[in-house]
Amino acid sequence: MKISVLGLGYVGLPLAAAIAKLTDHNVQGYDIDSSKVNSIKQGVSPIDDEQCAKDLKEITLNVSDESSSLTDTDIFIVCVPTPVLDDYMPDLTPVIGAVTEVCNHLKKGNVIIVESTINPGVCDEVLIPLVEEKTGMKAGVDFDLAHCPERINPGDPKWNVYNIPRNIGSTSAEATKRTADLYREFIDAEINEMPSLKTAEATKIIENTFRDINIAFVNELAKSFDVLDIDLKTVIDAAANKPFAFMAHYPSCGVGGHCIPVDPYYLIERAKQSGFDHKFLKLAREINNSMPAYTIGLLADELNEFARAIKGTKIALLGLSYKANVGDIRQSPSLVMRKELHDKGAVLTVFDPHFPDRSNVDSLDEALEGVTAVVIATDHTEFKSLTPEYFQSKGVKVVIDGKNCLDKVAFDNSKIAYKGIGR
């Protein structure tokens, strides 16, 4: 079969490479970003994914930025982003655009698989009617539409596209099984056949909403325990030795990435359309969205101890990525902190080894030259080993550890004013 993957980012590119590597199907990758396509043609991964980079060196993947490459496709897999707008309303424009393009090439017997994260009901209420209107074909009769929510964890050395279990729903039980069997060809993990499209859609939403709620819980505890003068990380580590009914989550300067800070809004908005108000989910989002400002507030408090204000003070922001050791800036709380520090008049140096083009200095040493305070926004390996002695050699007086990744005891025994999140 010819399988076309639309969208060659963190979801689509590893998927296309895996299918091409482990099956006999003809795989076609399609993306409107010509620079991304050119990079892949040269065997270079445009995303920060070690497994994908390795796969691209072992295979030749057909990719194109021309929609004509989708002609004669049997199975279309949609892997485009699903962001939120500035007011946090879900933006289905990329998904609708990709499926509209599929309609230009759809033939009877074809299958459309959506991996993009969508709220429950989008397949039945938006995508199937769209395809039926544009093609005159009937879902479940002339074509099938399936949903297999993506599960990608960038930078994870263990879990990748080959071994993460998946959930799949489609227009019928038979269509679900056919799609599941395709995934079983290249994934060595459980492929769970869901009873409907809507239940499949809901799985991804609640996975990430679950994490968002638990992170919000510990982020609020961080604020509380700061007032109570209790080290929250020590408490969480102790609670985690309970062998059942507890799952450790840790506070930080904010929640980033394409999933956790986005997906809850999809469920919030869809439930609102049906008359239900997700108060708990909205509160969790409010708490997590507050953490970058809270972190900058900690910085301001520590600088006040030295009779300094943020305005006019040279401050280093270390890390732009939303998580450690990956070059992924999507929804990163560091970007919010960078803007707030800039708006408050800080003399700001920014350094991230994964984003040299977005850093305004070339090295860590240069980033810390002459600075009074440091905010660690990403727990990259390069930052986790930093010591009080190193900071003191640079004249740093204040360190705000937004990821709780440094040795707190060592800093408590130094002349550096150290403050973590809930520590």
Task: Provide a descriptive summary of the structure in words.
This protein is an alpha/beta fold and 423 residues long. The chain folds into 2 domains: 2-195, NAD(P)-binding Rossmann-like Domain (Rossmann fold); 208-423, Rossmann fold (3-Layer(aba) Sandwich), CATH 3.40.50.720. It is built from 16 helices and 13 strands. It has helices at 12-22, 34-41, 50-58, 93-103, 122-135, 173-184, 197-228, 232-239, 263-273, 279-289, 291-304, 333-343, 364-368, 381-384, 388-393, 408-412; strands at 2-6, 26-30, 62-64, 75-78, 111-114, 144-147, 166-168, 191-193, 314-318, 347-351, 373-376, 398-401, 417-420. Strands 3-2-1-4-5-6 form a 6-stranded parallel beta sheet, sandwiched between helices. Helix 4 (93-103) runs parallel beside helix 5 (122-135). The chain is elongated, with a radius of gyration of 24 Å. The protein starts with a strand and ends with a strand.
CATH topology-level fold name of the largest domain: Rossmann fold
- The total strand number stands at 13
Order of strands in the sheet with most strands: 3-2-1-4-5-6
Number of domains: 2
Our count of helices gives 16
The major beta sheet can be summarized as:
6 strands, parallel
CATH top-level class of the largest domain = Alpha Beta
Q: Report the structural category.
A: alpha/beta
Percent helix range: 40-55%
CATH superfamily of the largest domain: NAD(P)-binding Rossmann-like Domain
Uncertain runs with pLDDT below 50, 5 residues or more? none
Distance between the termini: 56 Å
Overall spatial form: elongated
In the CATH hierarchy, the architecture of the largest domain is 3-Layer(aba) Sandwich
The H-and-E topology, N to C, reads as EHEHHEEHEHEEHEHHHHHEHEHEHHEHE
Beta-strand proportion:
5-15%
Radius of gyration: 24 Å
Mean pLDDT: 95
